[in-house]
Amino acid sequence: xxxxxxxxxxxxxxxxxxxxxxxxxxxxxxxxxxxxxxxxxxxxxxxxxxxxxxxxxxxxxxxxxxxxxxxxxxxxxxxxxxxxxxxxxxxxxxxxxxxxxxxxxxxxxxxxxxxxxxxxxxxxxxxxxxxxxxxxxxxxxxxxxxxxxxxxxxxxxxxxxxxxxxxxxxxxxxxxxxxxxxxxxxxxxxxxxxxxxxxxxxxxxxxxxxxxxxxxxxxxxxxxxxxxxxxxxxxxxxxxxxxxxxxxxxxxxxxxxxxxxxxxxxxxxxxxxxxxxxxxxxxxxxxxxxxxxxxxxxxxxxxxxxxxxxxxxxxxxxxxxxxxxxxxxxxxxxxxxxxxxxxxxxxxxxxxxxxxxxxxxxxxxxxxxxxxxxxxxxxxxxxxxxxxxxxxxxxxxxxxxxxxxxxxxxxxxxxxxxxxxxxxxxxxxxxxxxxxxxxxxxxxxxxxxxxxxxxxxxxxxxxxxxxxxxxxxxxxxxxxxxxxxxxxxxxxxxxxxxxxxxxxxxxxxxxxxxxxxxxxxxxxxxxxxxxxxxxxxxxxxxxxxxxxxxxxxxxxxxxxxxxxxxxxxxxxxxxxxxxxxxxxxxxxxxxxxxxxxxxxxxxxxxxxxxxxxxxxxxxxxxxxxxxxxxxxxxxxxxxxxxxxxxxxxxxxxxxxxxxxxxxxxxxxxxxxxxxxxxxxxxxxxxxxxxxxxxxxxxxxxxxxxxxxxxxxxxxxxxxxxxxxxxxxxxxxxxxxxxxxxxxxxxxxxxxxxxxxxxxxxxxxxxxxxxxxxxxxxxxxxxxxxxxxxxxxxxxxxxxxxxxxxxxxxxxxxxxxxxxxxxxxxxxxxxxxxxxxxxxxxxxxxxxxxxxxxxxxxxxxxxxxxxxxxxxxxxxxxxxxxxxxxxxxxxxxxxxxxx
Length: 898
Description:
- There is one protein chain.
- This protein is mostly beta strands.
- It has 5 helices and 62 strands.
- It has a 24-stranded antiparallel β-barrel. It has a 7-stranded mixed β-sheet with strand order 9-10-3-2-1-12-11.
- The radius of gyration is 36 Å and the shape is elongated.
- The N and C termini lie close together (10 Å).
C-alpha cells in the first residue's frame, strides 16, 4: 500500500506528471470546489488544554468547514497520506490493521472493511491535499470536532486514545519517575562537611521600659552556626531580663538523608553536645540534656506509636503557630531557653504537611514547611534501623545562669532502639532504656514490638517491661477509608508502669492504668467546590487512683470568600478529681485582606458550657505602609472577674540588613504602659565579596543559598573577571523569591534544617531573550550556618528558523506543514523536537552555540515514507541571536512501513 501526506505526490517522469496535471484539472473543472480561496481561515486546533497546532489551513464556506486530511493527520501523528493525482487518500489509523481509504472518484471511504458513501460537497482535492468536511471526517477518524469560525479555534475530542495522547501519557509516566511532569529532575548541589567555615550569626536585642519608668528590662540572644571539625556547629547564648547570660547551648551534628552521616558507620543524623534522646513507642520519652545521639532512621518517617516532637530555635520576641495539613493545631508565644517545643503533634495516616509560621515582634513573618510520612514504621526486608541517645537529664554542656532543678536533674538517661525488616510485610522492633521519670525512681525498661499491614490497615503492637515490676502494652491501627485518615491506639499498664509518652511530667501523679487515642482527619465538601480540612483528636487517660481524664477537640480551617477562618471546639472532663463538671470550650479566628496592603485579623475564645460566655477577644490590623515600613495595631479584651483591655502598637522598619521595631502597649484598667525597642539582624560571610556583611535574620537558624549567575562567554563554566552578571534571575526558595542584581549574585537565608531544600531558578525576567538558562531546579541538604553556592553560567543562545519544502514529482517545491523534525547537537546528547507551521516554517528557541544536525522524526518519516533529500547542518555562533538555517527539502520514498 502506498502512503504519503498532504501535498505529497508520487514520483513520476516529467511527461507522466504533465499528463496527470491535465487530467486533474479536467476532473476539477467537472467537479466544482465546495469552497473558494476567499474562504481560507487559519485555525488553532486544541484538545482540552493542549494546543495541537496554532495554525491549520481550514476553509469555511456555506457548505461547511473543510479540513486538510493530510496535514491534519500529521498533526495527530496518524499514518494517512494523500495522493492528489489519484484523488485518493489511504493509510491506517492507530494500528496497521485498521486500514482507511478515501476515494473521490467512487465517492466512497472504506474503514477496515466498512464502506461509507459521501457526496461531492463533502470532500475535494485542493492545493495538493484532500479537504474533508467535518461531518465526514468524524466518521473516518476517531474524533469529534467543533469549529468556531469567529474565534478561529477548533476543539477536538478524541473518542479513543490517539498517538499524540499516548505519547503524552508515556512522557508523564517517565517524568513521574523523577517527580512529576511539571517538575524537572533536580540537580544535586553537594555541601560536604569541612574543617571550618566562617560562622553565621543571628542577633536579637530588645529593651523594655514600663510602669512609669520603674520597671526596665533588656534582653538579647545570639545564635551562631558553621562547619567545625567536619561537623555542623550550632551555638546559642541567651540572657535574662537584666542582660546577664543565662543560657548557653552548643551542638556538633552531622546529617545525611542518604544514610552516611558518619561515613562507614552510616546514619542519617548524629550529634554531640546539648541534644535530645529519641522517644520510645512506649515508656521513655525524648528528653533534653548533655550527651550524644545517633539514628539511621529516615529523617521524615514515623510509626504509629512514636510521637512527633517538634523543637527548634525561637528568637527573642517571636511567636510560632503550628499547622498540620493546613489546620491550626497549636501556638507558642515566647521562647523557652531560646526554643519552641510542640510535643506529640497529631498526624494523619500517610503524608502530612507540617507548616510552622513564625511571627516576629517587628511584624515580619516566615515559614518552615516539612513533610512527614506517618505510617506503619516498616523497613525493607533485611535492613536494620538503629536509634541511640544518652544524656544527663536537664544539664547543658556549659552550666551557666539560673537553672530550675528537679529531682531527676543530672540523672543519666539512655535509650536504644532497633527495627529489622523480617520480610516485605513484617518488621520486628526492640529497645531498652535506663531513665528517671520526674518524681519517680530510676528504672530500666525493655521493649519488643511488631509492625505490619493487614490489607489497607496498618498495625503495630509493642510490649514493655521494667525492673520495678511494671508492664505495658500498646496496639495501634491506622487506615484511610473513603479519604478519611483514622489513627487509633490503646495502651494498658500494670504494676506502676510509667509511660512518659502519654503522661509527661509525672511528678507526684498516680501512674496510668490505660490510655486511648483517636484521630480523624479529612475534608468536608461544601458548596461551590469548597473543601474544608477537618481534624478531630481525642485522648482518654485512666489513672490507677480512679481518675479519668478526657480531652477532645474538633478543628477546621477554610477560606470563605475573602476571609480565612479557623475554628475549634474542645471538650474537657476530669472524673474523680472533684474539680467540677465537664467543660465545652471554643475559639474562632478570622483573617482577611482589606486591601493589598491592609490585613485585618480577629478572634474570640469562649466557654460553651457550663458557664457560657466570651473569655477573650482580640483584633489586629497590619498595614504595609511601604515595602520597608509596616504598622501593626492591636486590641485584646480579657473578660471575666479580672477583666482587662490591652492596646498594642508596633512599627517595623525593614532595612536591607536588619529589622528594627518600636513596640508599645497600654493596659486600660491598671493604666500600666510599656515601650520597647527591638532589633534583629544576621551576620554572614559573603563568598563573593569574601567578607562578612549584615543580612536579614535567619542566617544561623537554617541553611542558606548563594546564586552566582553570569554570561559564560567562553563556555568554560568558570566566571572570569570580565564576564558580566545576569540581573533579573528569580531565585525561588522555600522562604520566598529573591532576584539577582546587576552583579548576578544574591544570597537567601533561613532555609530551615530539613532533609532537603529545592531552589527553582526562573529566567523569564532576564532582559536578554537569547541567554540560555541552565537546570531550573536545584536541590541540596540545608543545615544551619552552611551556605550552598550555586554557580549558574548562562550561555548565549539563538532563535533558529528553517523552511520545510516538499519537492513534487515535477520538481516544483511547496511549503510542507506539520513536518516533524529533530535538531541534534554535535555530540548527540541534546535532541530538540520541532514541527513546521502552516507555511512550512520550523522555529526553534534557546538553541545553544555549536553545530546542529537536522533530521526527520523517525516515526513520522517511516509511517509516511518521507526522505530528506540532503543533510542539513546549522552552525550557531557563540554570540547567539537570530539565525536563518536554510531549507529542509523532503520528497516521498516508496511503500509505507507500519
